[in-house]
Give the backbone structure.
Amino acid sequence: MTYKERRFRLDPGDSLFVYTDGVTEATNSEKKLFGEKRLINALNEDCGADPDKILNSVKTSIDEFVGDAPQFDDITMLAFRYNGK
């Protein structure tokens, strides 16, 4: 597998959220995917939230969407805020 290297600048106060495809591909009992739009909505619920709150908010949104449907993939997320030097 080939990986691309990317660089970007984080300024103090910037946050980063990364996730596996299991987040957007979480499926409910009607076979609908959680998707990027729902993920963005969950992330925008509290833009200034700390990383723990962001992760909990997104996981709650996924759980509410999926309901009792079985999980077929991992749901892995990482969030952090860069505070500077």
